[in-house]
Amino acid sequence: MTMQDEVIFTEDNGVGVITLNRPDRLNALTYSMVKKINKNLNSWEINDNINCIIIEGAGDRSFCAGGDVVKLRKEVLADGGPPTNLSKSFFYDEYTLNYKISNYKKPFISLINGFTMGGGVGVSMHGSHVVASEKTMFAMPETAIGLFPDVGGGWLLGQLDKGIGAWLSLVGARIKAYDLLKLKLITHYVSSEKVKILKNSIISSSPNSNQNVNNIIDQFSSKPETEDSVLMNNGELIKKVFSYDTIEQIFDECEKLIENENEFLKVQYEELKHKSPTSLKISLKQIRNASHMSLKDELIMEYRMVQRCVEIGDFFEGVRAMLVDKDRKPNWKPNNIQDVDETRVNLFFEDLGDLDLILKN
Questions:
Q1: How confident is the model at residue 261 (pLDDT cuts 50, 70, 90)?
Q2: CA separation (Å) from 335 to 44, 172, 277?
Q3: What are phi and psi for residue 147, nearest 5 degrees?
Q4: What mean pLDDT value characterizes the chain?
Q5: pLDDT digits (tens, 9 = 90+) for 111-160
Q6: Is 119 assigned a catalytic role?
Q7: 3-state DSSP call for residue 116?
Q8: CA nearest 339: which of 253, 281, 284, 258?
Q9: Is 142 an active-site residue?
Q10: Is 79 designated active site?
Q11: Model confidence over 195-243: pLDDT tens digits?
């Protein structure tokens, strides 16, 4: 019996289809999957018989719930790290893939029908066409595991309204299709029962331009329901609280408004208090920087940050507490925001010299 392929590549009538195939693990990305996707995209880009690419997740629960950080941590620790060659190359190759998708020379159609978080955002939302359904649930929940919104997600959030971007980044808040469309994080909404028909229609038409792809998707797209919206009722409040440029000011504003019995904010503040203090501070600096950077420069910054998170940050402890032992009692160092000073924050942004990420257009 062969091991089930973690990612399946098919060519059908000029369409290259990538299927993330670990439904029991919510299609979490492993390093070998990243390498295989990179390799296939390279060959498809120069193959004249391939007109466009579709990426999808197996099963109907998840497109991709993120990178398989549990597996990464286990392998790095077994190898005597962090850091190890794997902790360097995993993120290097993953961010290279995210950039490749954003610059891809052929239409790249992401069908994100289910959970789309962390690493899943990186392999879908930089594509030319991002199609969500009512099952789509987006989040960048990295601050809970001692990381920050990476895979170019920090860049995507950095282009949004200051307050909304910071809220999604710091709280790791979950939003659905209506809000995603409003924020332009997706390009189309198609109800889940039509996603398969849409996929088949793309394959039978084999479109070779973005406009042709739009014409096909438009036949199936509709307007998402408003009842899933968090921003409709709370958008202005989120902007008011999260537009500050320091974590301390955001915490102060939360405390002030919670005294007035604001239930929504109470939940957001509880979330914030459980995150890694270091992660909160570096994520806010990252997202403010990202607002005036190119994706390329932002990914280079992220690579510097992620290497520091592995070496001196809370990443491995966060993964242990939230995903391995699941005691949900991370021992953050330092464990309150007052002790994360500017000197510590700046360490995460220092260039890595010869080890910096190099991205080719």
A1: confident
A2: 47, 19, 6
A3: -120, -155
A4: 97
A5: 999 999 999 999 999 999 999 999 999 999 999 999 999 999 999 999 99
A6: yes
A7: strand
A8: 281
A9: yes
A10: no
A11: 999 999 999 999 999 999 999 999 999 999 999 999 999 999 999 999 9
Residue 361 has what pLDDT?
79
Count other Cβ atoms within 10 Å, centred on residue 159: 17
What's the one-letter identity of residue 105?
K
Catalytic residue among 6, 56, 94, 150: 150
**In whole angstroms, what is the distance from residue 200 CA to residue 349 CA?**
45
**Rounded Cα gap, residues 323 and 318, in angstroms:** 8
- pTM here? 0.97
Tokens 């607002």 — which residue? 291
Token reading at 128: 């030319």
Q: What are phi and psi of 130, to 5 degrees?
A: -125, 110
- Tokens 């420069």 belong to 297
Please give the full DSSP string across 287-337, using - where no structure is assigned: HHHHTTS-HHHHHHHHHHHHHHHHHTSSHHHHHIIIIIS-------SS-SG
Please, are residues 295 and 195 in contact by the beta-carbon 8 Å criterion? no
Using only the alpha carbons of the chain, give its radius of gyration: 20
Q: Is 67 a catalytic residue?
A: yes
Give all domains of the chain, ordered by start, each with its CATH number: 7-355 (3.90.226.10)
Indicate the residue type of 48.
D
Query: Out of 142, 179, 298, 314, which one is annotated catalytic?
Result: 142
Q: 271 near 194, Cβ under 8 Å?
A: no
Asked if omega into 149 is within 30° of 0 (cis), the reply is no
SS3 16: strand
Query: How many CB atoms within 10 Å of residue 155?
Result: 27
Q: Which of 16, 119, 165, 313 is catalytic?
A: 119
Backbone φ and ψ for 345, nearest 5 degrees, come out as: -60, -45
Would strands 108-112 and 52-57 be described as parallel, antiparallel, or unpaired?
parallel
Residue with tokens 């659905």: 176
β-strands 15-20, 7-12: how paired? antiparallel
Angle CA 132–133–134, to nearest 5: 135
Q: Angle CA(334)–CA(349)–CA(291) in degrees, nearest 5?
A: 110
The one catalytic residue in 67, 114, 127, 153 is 67
Cis preceding linkage at 207, omega within 30 = no
